[in-house]
Structures are given as C-alpha cells and as structure tokens.
Amino acid sequence: MIQTQILHEAPFSPHRLNKYASLHACGNGRIGIRGCHEEAYTDQQRGMFVAGFYHRANATEVTELVNLPDITGMRIELDGESLSLLSGTLVSYQRELRTMNGELYRELVWQSPAGQRFRIETRRFVALSPLALVACRLTVTALDAAAHLGVSTGIDATQTNSGRQHLNERSVRVFDQNVLQGGYDTTDGQQQAMITSQCRIPSGASSSFSAKNRRLLQHISLPLPAGEAVTLEKFSWIATSLDADFLPESDWSSRCLASLSACAQQGYGHLLMENTRHWQHYWQDSRVCVTSDHPQDQRALDFALYHLKLMIPAHDARASVAAKGLTGEGYKGHVFWDTEIFILPFALLNAPEQARKLLEYRYLNLTQAQEKARRSGYQGALFPWECAFSGEEETPEFAAINIRTGQRQRVASAMAEHHLVADIAYATVGYFQATHDREFMQQMGLALLKETALFWMSRAQRRGDRLDILNVIGPDEYTEHVDNNAFTNYMAHDNVQAACRYLRECDQQDAAFLAQAEDFLAHLYLPQPDEQGVIAQDDTFFSKPQCDLTAYKSQQGTQAILLDYSRAEINEMQVLKQADVVMLMHLLPEKFTSGCLSANLAFYEPRTIHDSSLSKSVHGIVAARSGQTAQALQFYREACRIDLGEEPHSSDDGIHAAATAAIWLGAVTGFAGLTYQSGELHFRPSLPPGWSRLQFPVRWRGACLTVCLEPQQFILSKTDAQPLTVRINGTAHTFTESLVLKGTHDEN
Ligand code: BGC
After folding, report:
1. What is the CATH number of the domain that holds 298?
2. Distance, CA 633 to ligand 1 centroid (Å)?
C-alpha cells in the first residue's frame, strides 16, 4: 500500500470552512464534491459539480458549471440538540483527506450544550469506479449515557450557484420506503440530472420522508445505547443527460435505481476497499516521490496529484478542466489556457490518452472557433478565451466594479488575449511528440495546427518589411492592448512553423498555405534580447516607468494594486500580473540561452506582483533551468502555498487547478529539467538544496520510464528493452533498460 501524505485540517476553524471545503474535495474527474461538513454553517458553500454540466441562468449571467442538488448534508440531532461545532464544546477534532484512497475522514468528540458527550465519525468518497457513485457513512457513539439520534438527509435542491438558480425540480419520489430520487431539468429544458440516494440504517431505526421546498428528505430516528457505535450509510448515484447511457425518463429512473442498489448492497467498507484499489493503481503509476529536508514538499506533490485525478475528465472529451477543477464555483467552471499549458503535460506524461481527450475537446469546438475568427475579421480558428460546453466565447463582458473608480471594468481578454490559439497548437505538438499518435494527427491534430496557423497569418499586419501582431494581451493581463507581445509573437511563430512541418510530414501539401506560411515565418517580428539579454515584453514596455511593488508583492494574489490604480494607469507602468516573457522562457527554453533565461528572470521578477496563481511556479521552473536552484526552490515552495498556505480564504471558490498542476510541473520540468517539445526527451537535472532524491514515472512513446535524480547521479530505467535516445544536459544517450549517469547536475 502506498501511503501518500494525508491532508489534515486541525484545529477546526470556522474561518477556514471554505478553504478546506475546496482542499478536501472528493471526486473522480466526472463528479467533484466540496469537502463541506455534513452539518450546515451559514458561511459554508456546499457544492457538487459534474464535468461538462453547464447552464446559463439568464441573459444577464454567463454560463456556469451547475452547482447540483446537495447529497452530503445531514442534520444530526443528539437528544434533540443539533450538532454544530459552533455550539457546545468541541472536545477533540480531526479531519483528514486520505489521498491514498480518496476518502474524507472526520472524527470528533462533541459535548452538547446539555453536557452529553458524543463521538462522531463521518466518512465519504466519490468512487473512481463506477463514476456515478458517492458513498457516505456516519457513526455516532453516545459516550456518557443512552441518548437519541435523529438524522435528516436526502437530496437538497435548494442549492444554487451563489443565488443563480439553474434547475427546475421535475420529479421527486420515494421508492420502497427506502430510496429517494429527484429528477431535475436545467431551466432552459436542455439538460437533465437524476439523483438517487439510499440509506442503510440500523435495525431498530424508524424513518419517514418529506418533500418540501425542493428538499427531498429521509428523517431517521433511533436510540443510541450508551457506549455503542451506531452506523448509518448513505449511497448516491449521480446521473445526467451527458452520460453515454442516458435514457428516456422511466427507463433512466429504473436504471439509476438498479445501479445504485447493486452498489449499496456491497456496503461502505467493501466499496471503500475497491476505491482504495483504484487509487493505489493511480499512485503506483503516477506518484512523484521526493526525499527532502522539508516534509511539506512530498505533501504538496501528493496534494497536486490527488487533485489532478479529480479535475481531469478522462471519461468524456466534451468536457475539459475548469480553472478550479470541480472544487468550486470560481471562474464559473470555465476552461482557460490553464488546461493546455499547465494541466495537459501531466496527463500527457502519465496517461497520454487523457491528454488526447483534452485536445479532442478543442477539436470538437473547432467550428465555433472558426466562427469566432470570422466574426472578428480573421481566418482560421480563434478559440474562446474562456470556454464551457458549447464552444462559444464565455468570457464575461465586465469584471467586478472597481471600487476606487466606481467603473465596471470591461474584460478585454475575449477580444485580445489571443495567445491561447498558439497554446493549443503547442499542446498539440507536445502530444504528438510524446506519443507519435499518427491517427490523432490525421484526424484532429493537423486541422488544429492548420486552423490556428491560419489565424496568426491573418492576424499579423505588415508594417514595412516586417509582420507585427498588434493590439494583443499577453499572459500578463495587467498590460493590455499592446503591439508585438514577445510571448504571443514567438508562440505564433512556433505555431505556424509546426503547422508547416506536420502538413509536410503528413503529406498534406497545400501550396498556397505553405507559401503564405513561409512568408509569415520569414517576416514575423521576433523581439531579440538587448545587450543585457532582456527581451522587451512588447513594443512600449521599456518606455514605461517602473513602480515600487513592495506593498503589492506582500499581498500577492489579492490584486490589491487595483484599489490604488485604475487598469488604465497600471497599463502605463512596468507592472506585471504574472509571468510573460518568463513564461515564454518556460515554454520554449531551447530558443534562449541559459544567460538569457537568468537575465529575463532578474529583470521581470521585480516588476511582477504574482497576482495570478499561474506565475510563481513558472519563475521557479525558469530559475531551475538557468541553474539557480536555491531561488527555484524558494519560488517552488511559495507556489505550493497558493492553496496549501495559511491564508484562510485563499481557496474559498475552489483550488487553483493550474497552480496545482504546476506543483508537478515544477518538480518534473523544473528540477528534472524535462522537456519534449523538440521531439526528444531532454533532461537538465538540477536537484535543489535539501532534496536528496526525486523520482517519478514518465510515459514516452509507449515506454514506461522511471526517472530518478540524486545529488551525484541521474538514473533512467524502463520496463521494455527497446533502445531509447534521450538528451541529458544536451548530450544524447541511448539505452535499453537503464542508464546511470554520474555528476549530471548543473553547477551554476
Ligand atoms: C490569469 C489567467 C488564467 C485565469 C484562470 C487569471 O487570473 O491571469 O492567466 O488563465 O486566471 O486561471
């Protein structure tokens, strides 16, 4: 059994309810359930989401991932007193997320206001298989004297997305005095959800049912003998019209009842054993192990891999990864470049078929992207900056009101943050490099590469002898509407180059396209490093004044600068929200020297607030690649604290999916220096101080490799006997089963 690190919450704090609801979420890539307590608290935001299940409440709102009816809530009454950790006395408390098997576990002793002590244990998990199953268990022991237990639980459709109502109750029923079932339609009638729940209650318990005000509940009542543990189990089956086996109403209802009953019969303990087996396979296949002087490093990696499993919808290419995974309402569940650039590499090097699905998601939305390009006056495909299910642009028109100016700030990303187009092409190339999946290339990859390339070719404008890309927003969203954002130009160049290469390789010569592309490649302006090795973020960046960011950096992630300056003012200063040129160095490191990486890091970092969670980790990776391992480790650990740090509200709306994936990225592409974009597997090992070992698996073109870094040696091993060539610090090495190299670390 692989004992991954447990994520504890102790002591209980009402201020951290929502942070831990996100961190302690359970899920399986299809369903995500926030780690809320069974009992209600005013500020606690419950949440259950199904990947791809989006809806728009009304014309004034944007499409969002629907917060489905709640199934984990329980009103627990002990001798007539409602369990609440805010009343009575909390004698002991422990809550932990068991990443090794996906179970959220809580154990506490509560003394009711009347003075009676009860031991309460709650447990739950979302099954990795079947993907529709959720299991919960409540165990109560009256510690002082016999008492009475009342539990009300069921399906609570009063749940909304912070007040936005997405579902109509279509049907509620109780079958066989035992099973509850609620059928719900999105208010536009387009989608359905069917939730079926059933409790296993001890003999001697009585129960009744009610359906009122969108709550379908079972009320269980039973005696609690002194000192005897009493257990109640609840199983739920979550089905939606997105499911492959979705059926017309009555058949669907009975199918759900039968599926749930088959699982419920097995009981919580058995189902948990099965779940443990599935999670253990995952950990065996993917875990990153670090030996470090800081135990938090392994904890962060286990946390990241746990949540990566929860966020990637491996079962359905019509869904992708939301910016908060399935752990909260933040960013409305929309899909950003976060997926291709931060999350997809993990899938690619661990379960390439999942990376393929993430790309297929874009391919399935190619027509809408072509239409967006057309509407914006371009050719090819302009993918929406924020995407949900329909493939249409979902970016809200306005952000929150700036309380300094009183103005509603227009969100310009949908109009000008076009680098996503090249990011998708970049991920397409990476996927092909790592898999040589020719069928994918023929069916989807070439179309993605060509349409994205066509976009750039029509997007660039000729000015004199050169092609410029005008009026864009690069990754740094504090700098809007600039010309020749270096990140965008280089990535666009890479995009068009890849399209030419693969069209030629796949014998899909299109003479007109290739001629235009060659012209684009020859003339597109690629800003070069100046004498100090620094690349200008855009045409005007160097001419803007620098600003003292000390105060804002100390509150990074909060966008505090927007309280002192308007967006327009920030635009005229050298202030970065997040890595931009440094991001470019991360994605295309082979295009720049190690000196150039260091120079840009040194220049841009003091100008970067890291107000986006996508920033710090990337600085860490680039620092590691340029040999500055101590600094890299500092960035890395700070990035790990985005969700795992002490700040009580850092993750209220959900975990930061890209930042979570970047914990894996930092270890693998940062400290092991792994890259694959050029078509070969490269390593540039630079184990940071305090780390004596880093080991992780990599799937590469069908081979299963184990990579192991130690201070004085680098070891690669694999299970098959096919020769494989890799580059380590630039030198090619061919091996069959294993390769051991001494003294491989960068010593800058
Ligand atoms: C960042 C974007 C990111 C988005 C979703 C924004 O704050 O600036 O780069 O894609 O959050 O994570």
Report:
1. 1.50.10.10
2. 23
Domain count, the chain: 2
Dihedral class, residue 184 (left if φ above 0, else alpha if ψ from -120 to 50, else beta) = beta
Residue 721 placed within a domain: no
The residue whose CA is least distant from atom 12 of ligand 1 is: 323
pLDDT tens per residue across span 685-736: 999 999 999 999 999 999 999 999 999 999 999 999 999 999 999 999 999 9
Cβ(480) – ligand 1 distance below 6 Å:
no
Is residue 267 situated within a structural domain? Answer: yes
Q: Is 339 near ligand 1, meaning CB less than 6 Å away?
A: no
**pLDDT per position as a tens digit, 188-226:** 999 999 999 999 999 999 999 999 999 999 999 999 999
CB of residue 614 inside a 6 A radius of ligand 1: yes
Residue 710 in domain = no
Residue where a domain terminates, one of 655, 671, 687: 671
Report the nearest atom of ligand 1 relative to the CA of 338: 10
Q: Most distant CA pair in the chain: distance in Å?
A: 89
Residues 275 and 322 in one domain: no
**Residue 106 belongs to some domain of the structure:** yes
Active-site residue list = 477
Instruction: Encode pLDDT of 523-540 as tens digits.
Output: 999 999 999 999 999 999
Q: Give yes or no for a contact between 131 and 28, defined as CB atoms under 8 angstroms apart.
A: yes
Model confidence over 573-608: pLDDT tens digits? 999 999 999 999 999 999 999 999 999 999 999 999
- Does 657 contact ligand 1 (Cβ within 6 A)? no
For the Cβ of 579 lying below 6 angstroms from any atom of ligand 1, the answer is no
- Separation between Cα atoms, residue 428 and residue 698, nearest integer Å: 18
267 shares a domain with 208: yes
Q: Extract the tokens encoding 238.
A: 């979550």
Nearest Cα residue to atom 11 of ligand 1: 612
Same domain, 360 and 256: no
Q: At 42, which CATH number?
A: 2.70.98.40
Give mean pLDDT, residues 554-567.
92
Q: Among 353, 308, 310, which Cα is nearest to 663's?
A: 308
> Where does 321-380 show beta strands of DSSP type E?
none
Q: What are phi and psi of 386, to 5 degrees?
A: -120, 135
Q: Are 207 and 296 within one domain?
A: no
Domain range enclosing 579: 289-671
| 291, β-bridge pairs | 693
104 and 246 share one domain: yes
